[in-house]
Design goal:
The chain folds into two domains: 5-58 and 262-412, no CATH class; 66-254, no CATH class. Strand 6 (163-174) and strand 7 form a beta hairpin. It is α+β, with helices and mostly antiparallel strands. The chain has 17 helices and ten strands. The chain starts with a helix and ends with a helix.
């Protein structure tokens, strides 16, 4: 072994201070606690932010297409184009969609919304919609019956069977002049997609009804494509689809359309990592200060050990082991505590809510019903390696100074 039994014995003895050496032990204890809190806090925050990103991306990928194909006008021969797109490796579905903006009017109240038209078959196959119905039945989606989000229904006090009026931005000629196109529809079902922007501002309409309302004829406005591995293969699929459809069509993938959100999440995660790393850095500086004081306090002991035959290497290893032990124990404790905290984060949240009497994680604000947290063991490994590297590096300097103590000078005034 690198460290002998004698070296391990002395390193442990120096970390357990006697009464007259209590101040050195207090600093070493705070160094240990600082390393534990630094590592634990960094892992918890990175896990929560990683969970937020994972949940956000899963919601986006469940509600939005992975790749969208569109052109300047309605796509008429969309069946043949969809068949070509489905031939691309990795593509699992290509859905014709009619999408547009509309104005909902109800009892003198008006609000804008996004209307998305799709076939009843595609609606039933879309788990993000059909799998989150809170009122009505899947079979009720058809003809002039539409699906609306839960927040929209709550805000407008709509229930299944209510009539709503939509105004299209496209104008139509009437005996009274040119006016926005008007359509009356029935609320067939209410769903809760899990994201506020969709729950409050999205309406799903049968494809034929949407074609008539937005006057696209037999065409659609876009083809929504979903692939098997949207996070890792979207670039290759984007390129292959663009080659198949040609330059007359626009091809946009989910990363491009959500670039701002993804960049914001990544920037916040990187910033929090840098800020919380400072806690570990401060703890590492506490290690070097405690070791320097320990070396200063043990000058006479070092001199006696040197006169008894201890080499400079042995002295250096003794004090290096004393400092490194703080880093190893602190990092291990931080990992254990953080993993337990992440595993039981919801239990901790409910306990704190009961204690304070406040909702610490309102779902209407954060869009999620519980705190998303995901342990990334690769990331935990990097955090531990960084903490150990800092503690080892800051232990070398005082250990080297201890090995350079001159026995004669150290014992001269003893």
């Amino acid at each position: 072994m690198i460290f002998g039994a004698f070296e391990r014995l002395l390193a442990g003895r120096y970390l357990r201070a006697r009464r007259q050496e209590g101040f050195v032990s207090v600093i070493a204890t705070f160094s240990l606690l600082g390393m534990t809190l630094g590592v634990g806090t960094l892992i918890v925050v990175m896990s929560v932010m990683g969970g937020f990103r994972t949940e956000f991306v899963s919601k986006i990928l469940g509600l939005n297409p992975h790749i969208m194909v569109s052109t300047n006008g309605p796509i008429q021969d969309y069946s043949a184009l969809s068949a070509k797109i489905r031939s691309v490796p990795g593509v699992i579905e290509a859905m014709p969609i009619v999408e547009g903006q509309a104005l909902l009017t109800l009892n003198g109240y008006a609000t804008g919304m996004l209307v998305r038209g799709l076939t009843p078959e595609d609606f039933r196959a879309k788990a993000a919609f059909a799998g989150h119905i809170v009122a009505g039945k899947v079979e009720d989606f058809g003809e002039d019956r539409v699906a609306i989000g839960l927040e929209m229904a709550a805000r407008l006090r709509l229930t299944v069977g209510d009539q709503i009026v939509l105004l299209s931005p496209k104008l139509t000629s009437t005996p009274f002049g040119t006016m926005p196109r008007k359509g009356t529809f029935t609320v067939g079902l209410i769903f809760n997609p899990g994201l506020s922007q969709f729950s409050s501002g999205l309406m799903l309409m049968p494809l034929e009804a949407a074609q008539g309302f937005f006057q696209t004829g037999d065409g659609v406005t876009e083809i929504d494509v979903n692939i098997a591995d949207p996070e890792n293969s979207v670039g290759a699929a984007h390129k292959a689809i663009a080659q198949i459809v040609g330059s007359n069509f626009r091809v946009i993938d989910w990363q491009q359309s959500n670039l701002l959100y993804l960049n914001t999440l990544d920037t916040e995660k990187s910033t929090m990592f840098l800020i919380l790393t400072l806690i570990i850095l401060v703890a590492a500086f506490n290690i070097i200060s405690s070791l320097i004081m320990l070396v200063k306090d043990k000058n006479a002991d070092i001199a006696i050990l040197r006169t008894m035959g201890a080499t400079r290497g042995m002295i250096m290893r003794i004090f290096f082991l004393a400092g490194a032990s703080i880093g190893v124990i602190g990092s291990t404790s931080g990992v254990v505590l953080s993993v337990l905290f992440v595993r039981y984060i919801e239990t901790v949240r409910h306990w704190l809510q009961d204690l304070t009497g406040r909702d610490l994680f309102p779902s209407e604000l954060y869009l999620f019903s519980q705190i998303p947290a995901k342990l990334d063991w690769v990331q935990i490994f990097y955090v531990v390696v960084m903490a150990l590297a800092l503690s080892f590096f800051f232990s070398i300097i005082p250990a080297w100074r201890a090995s350079r103590v001159d026995p004669v000078e150290a014992l001269r005034y003893e």
